[in-house]
Amino acid sequence: MDSGSNKKTLETYTFFKSQATLITKFLKIAKKCYDWSNFSSAFSIYDGLQEVTVRNLRAWQQVPNKTFQILEKIATVKVIIHRSRIFKNFLKHFNSF
Fold this sequence. Notes:
Helix content is 81%, strand content 0%. By secondary structure, it is mainly alpha-helical. The protein is elongated. The mean pLDDT is 85.
């Protein structure tokens, strides 16, 4: 390899590392929102990170597993809350008969 390709490899690694750092920061902010029971903001950050253009970034490989678990936890809570809202709406509709 010549020094030009080494430099490009280093620049690419640095670029992915900075993207991973940014993703990690967003996940930590989402966790703070979750901890403060600000679920709307936590879910909005989650939804933004799930956008196709963000989700397909190779930088996700650089995100630490412990930080990635924050995303999974928020996803689980989002599903539970969504299902409970559907059930509440069903009961409201069912009781109106």
